[in-house]
Amino acid sequence: MMPNKFTWNSFFKKALLLIPLCVCLACAQHLTRIVPPETHPPHMTFTVLRDYNTTWNAMVHTVTGLPGHTIRSSQKKTGTIVVEPVTVVIKDYCDCGKIGETPLKGLAKRRTKIKLKPKAPQKTVVEISCKYTTTYTWKNIYGKSVRNEIIKCTSNGRFEQGLYQRLIRYLN
Fold first, then answer.
1. Which residues in the chain show pLDDT less than 50?
2. Residue 137's closest CA among 36, 34, 30, 35?
3. 76, 70, 169: which is closest to 112 by C-alpha?
4. Which runs of consecutive H residues, i.e. helices, occur in the chain?
5. CB 127 within 8 A of CB 19
6. pTM
7. If 114 and its partner were Cys, which of 25, 63, 81, 138 is the partner (CB 3.0–4.6 Å)?
8. Structural domain boundaries of the chain?
9. Residue by residue, what is the 3-state secondary structure of 60-97?
């Protein structure tokens, strides 16, 4: 049987090695991760009690009347209007989630697509779809950018609702 060779000298050597390791682990920050938005995308389908042609023309005028917005493409036959992307303030129009515990703020790019479908002689369904994205820049401990990540955001429905209300005002 081998004798137990516990000495204070070996104990202090081990302690001196473990103390810096424990200090490093205690000071280490939690890894930061992206937390997706908690809100669900709004369902933005509206029924307009007007014929398809009247609603189409009113929607084109409504979109072109929005400051900073231009129509990229429109196809009356398929009922599709695509608006040029615009940059908006995140807190006003969407939820982009969080980085760790901090909500993302700043700017997001909005892409808008509008679909119109005739449902009856005096009934048109209008579907407004907005997709938001923002770019988050990951930085190292020295503050230098190391990579960019595109983050999908969820609309809060404010723009879609406002566009619909403008359309109704235009029709009235």
1. 21-30
2. 34
3. 70
4. 8-27, 52-64, 90-93, 158-171
5. no
6. 0.76
7. 81
8. 31-171
9. HHHHHCCCCCCEEEEECCCCEEEEEEEEEEHHHHEECC
